[in-house]
Amino acid sequence: MLIALSQISAHRGTTATPAQPSSGVIGTGAANALFGGIPQHGNVLGSANAPVTLIEYADPQCPYCAVYARDVLPTLVRDYVRPGKVRLVYRGLWFLGQDSGVALATATAAGQQHRFWNVIDLIYRNQGPENAWVNDPLLRKIVVAGGADPQKVFAARNGPAVLSTIDTWSAQARADGVSGVPAFFYGPRGARPSRLALTAIGVPEFRVALDGALRG
C-alpha cells in the first residue's frame, strides 16, 4: 500500500548523494518560504490554538514520506497551518536503517533552534538512495540552509535531550499501532486523534479529513 518499511540495518552509507545545485542543497528557497513566519516549537508547526492537530509518523529516508513532503505538505501549510486552522506534529522513526537515525537526530537537534521543519523538509528534498546518501557534509549544508547553527546542532544531536525525544516518538508509535510509514492521525485539539486511512498520498484525502474535523 503506502507503507515503506524495512529491517533496521547497521550500514551507514556515505556516498551517492543526489545531484545538487551549486549551493549544495536542493529547495532551500522553497522550504524557507514555506515555513517562514509560522511558529515552530521543536517538532510542532503552527499555532498552539489551532482547533485541529495532524500528526505524522515518518522516516527521513522513506520515499513515500518524501512524496507527502513534496506534493501534499505545501498545500496543507498554505491552506490550513498558516491561517491557524491546523497544527502539525512530526514524530520521527528510523525503520530504514542507521542513516535514518542520523538524519532524524540532526533534524531533531535543529528543533532546539526552532528550525526542525526547515531541516526535515530539506532532508526530504535532498533524499537519495536508501542508506547511500546521508553524510555529515550534506547534513551540515542542510542545517545551514535551514537557518540553524550547525555547530550547536552537531553537538546536540547525540545528546540525551535528542535521544530521549526520539525514544518518546518510538514509544508513541508503538502505542498508536504504527508499523510502517507514513502514518497520520488527526483530530480536534485535546481529543484523542483518529488514524487517517489513506489509499493514496494526495491533497484531496487530507482535505476531506481536515475539513471534517474543522466542521466538528
Proportion of strand residues: 5-15%
End-to-end CA span: 29 Å
- Helix-strand string: HEEEHHEHHHHHEEH
Q: Walk across the major sheet and give the strand order.
A: 1-2-4-3-5-6
Low-confidence stretches: 1-22
**Helix/sheet category:** alpha+beta
What would you report as the Rg, rounded to the nearest angstrom? 16 Å
The main sheet comes to: 6 strands, mixed
Helix content: 40-55%
Give structural notes.
It is a single chain. The chain contains nine helices and six strands, in the order H-E-E-E-H-H-E-H-H-H-H-H-E-E-H. With 216 residues, it is an alpha+beta fold. A six-stranded mixed sheet has the order 1-2-4-3-5-6. A hairpin with a 5-residue loop joins strand 5 (183-188) and strand 6. It is globular, with a radius of gyration of 16 Å. The two termini are 29 Å apart. Mean pLDDT is 90; it is low at 1-22.
